[in-house]
Amino acid sequence: MTDATDIPGRKPDGAWAHLLHVLRENPVTMLSFGLFAFFLLQAFFGALIVPHDPLATNAANALQPPDWTHWFGTDSLGRDVFSRVVVATRLDLMISVLAVAISFAVGSVLGAVAGYWGGWIDAALNRVLDTIMAFPLFVLAMGIVAALGNSIENIIYATALINIPFYARLVRAEVNIRREAGFALAARLSGNSHFRTLAFHIFPNALPPMMVQVSLNMGWAILNAAGLSFIGLGVRPPTPEWGIMVAEGANYIISGHWWVALFPGLWLMLAVFTFNLMGDGLRDLVDPRRRT
Description:
single chain
């Protein structure tokens, strides 16, 4: 019987088969990926499908409760809360994804080099990471944004910086454990350079626990950006952003206008919940031992 991998010029469909297997095996993973797709659709097409302009004000419709015209009600300036919540998805996801991508890339390189070669490189890296971790991370992010200015770029850099130690320490530990493993020694004996052994043999085996960290950090990054916006150091009004909207709505909860803060907070909670659930699924997708 001929396997698909034996046919010249034909790529195996193992990746898709493995993805479907992971989704079928774990309903929670399927739910999390479905929610993630829901947020991606909002991020890419939200501005096209919302019923109202998220920046348009109308004093006559200020603080109107949810109805068939304004599904999530309106805020103090008469802006449609539903439209603002949906459009804000793109900005919050962009901040989260870019911040985690930067911290993942930098932390992975630093941790892999330190874990593989050790010595003074390892000692120096640990001292730098200890210095970063000595500060309360949100306070450190506040200081960076306050010093550099509350722009979107600076929020991304600050969020990435406070997440680098998580990846660097995790990769260092995983690489340090596997650098003398049998498959790594076999790779070096077969003529692979140290760099190739590290990049193509050791590092892929360190990815599964890192995927769990990526999932958690995505949620933390969104919370960090929302927290900075809540205290006035994040995205500037009138740009739609979940943290700003919760901060603005908090002033009206006591007066009974609960919807202004509830729905942005609900979307924020749902996004963090989604990323927290995705960790196990991402780990299973990249784990070489689970591939069939």
